[in-house]
Sequence to fold (235 residues):
Amino acid sequence: MKSTLGLSVVVAGILFAWTPWAPIDAQTPQKPQVALPQAGVPQIMTLEGNFVRVAYNNEGYVILGYEPVNRSIGEQWVLLDIGVTVRDRTPDFKLKRDALSLSTPDGKTIPLATVSEHRAANTAALQARANVQRDSINYFPPTASRACRIGFFADLDSGAMTWDEVDVSSNRACLGRIYFQVPSGISYGQHWLNVKFPQSVVRVPFRILTKDEEQLLSKNYKGIKKQVEEAFAKK
Fold:
């Protein structure tokens, strides 16, 4: 199948490594240009907010919200809000804990934290901050209309149960919070959430932005979003 999916072998996420376009004259404002990094897998990516990313292929679909991580530089715990489903006419499957991993700017791949590690870490303050700094990630395909909880973790004061797998189908919009421990501390730069589906991997790119990068993104969001959309548009 030749489609925009093939583009992601070359471009698959947003790096926010801006370089100015050459101005026509001294009065022409410089515009930021987005450099798109390589995911190494065929997929499409969209930008749905300063801290919301979507990536998908012919099989899997993943949404990511990460603003709390961008406010946690130097801390060891990464909290991500995620949404997962499969594409229409794709078989159901069980999403297990070992299907999720985090790639960091230093080239390391970190597995999902265990429940015991999460409980021992006392992430109550992080959870409270995330409740305030929380973006909507309701960007599921129309076929995913049934609510579904990704229960790999539970807030410490919620009393909810945790489990090691989630039934995923094309009509289920599965949402949840996940945690990774980064011993060296959260740093600026390009990260990837890796989600393994039965036949493929979806890699959701997200960059921990400096204050200057965040300001530049906010100021030029519409133009940058358009660049990303055009990069994956059908030719």
Notes: The longest strand covers residues 77-86. Helices lie at 67-70, 115-121, 124-132, 211-219, 221-231. Residues 4-231 form one domain. The radius of gyration is 18 Å.
